Every structure is written in structure tokens, then in C-alpha cells.
Amino acid sequence: MALVGRNKNALKDTLVNTQKEARKRGLRINEDKTKYMEVTRAESNSGHLRCGKYEFEHVKVFSYLGSQLNQTSSTSSEIQARILSGNRCCYAYGKLMKSRALNRSSKLKIYKSLIRPIVTYGCEAWTLTNRDEQYLRIFERRVLRKIFGPVQNEDGF
Q: What is the spatial order of strands in the sheet that 54-58 belongs to?
């Protein structure tokens, strides 16, 4: 569950309401597993958040539904993590991509259906910089070079 508030006081109020509803249903909040993150443009070094008998740790990076969120709303770290996951997937399918038993169109289908979705998961919410676009292009070219092989000139080199 993710709780969102405009400021710490609003977050505390939301947490108190959530705690009341959770108690009615026999649930409790695990203080060790619960963290909070303040999203600001400036670097924030907030300490722990106290709410009633609970004290929650402040984190700068938070993983939610497979995406990495950070306190400055920068997507660069998320894109780097996605590219890393794509590299792992490419390595896992390395034998298939090098196999001469599969033709290029089959390898391309593997790339489009298995590898690319891992890299582009959540991309609808990304704000890309030129550098991020360049990293994504480099990743795609590297995979396509494995599929199609090196580029040759007219003279065969």
C-alpha cells in the first residue's frame, strides 16, 4: 500500500485513518517494513517520521510495483535499472540469440515480445532527457547487432 500526502501532517492524518481501518479488519502496520519518502525538488535529509507510537524511516529511493521512485522524481535511475534488467534478460536468452537454428525474424520476435517490454515497463510516465534517450538507443542497437550481426560495406568489410 502506498500512502500519499501533500505534507507530513496530511500524511500523518492519512496514516491514522488507515491504522483505524486496519485495526477494524484485524490488520496491523509493520513498523520495520514501512518507510516513507518525501518528494521534493531540493535534497531532503529528513529524519524519522513519528506518528503515534510508530516511527518510520526516511528513504531516498523506493521500489513500488516494480518501478523505482526517488525523492527528486528523476527517472534516470529508473531507466538505468530497466536497462540493467534488459541486459540480464538478454544474457538469459543469449544461447537462443546466438543459435543458428533460429532465423532473424524469430530472434526479432523474441526481442520485441520478451526483452523490450522489460526495458520499457512504465515508460509512459518517464520524462526523458537526451542522455536517457541515448542510453535506450545504445541498448537497442546492441541487441539488434546481436540479432543481425555486424554491418558490412559493399566490399564485404
A: 35-36, 54-58, 49-51
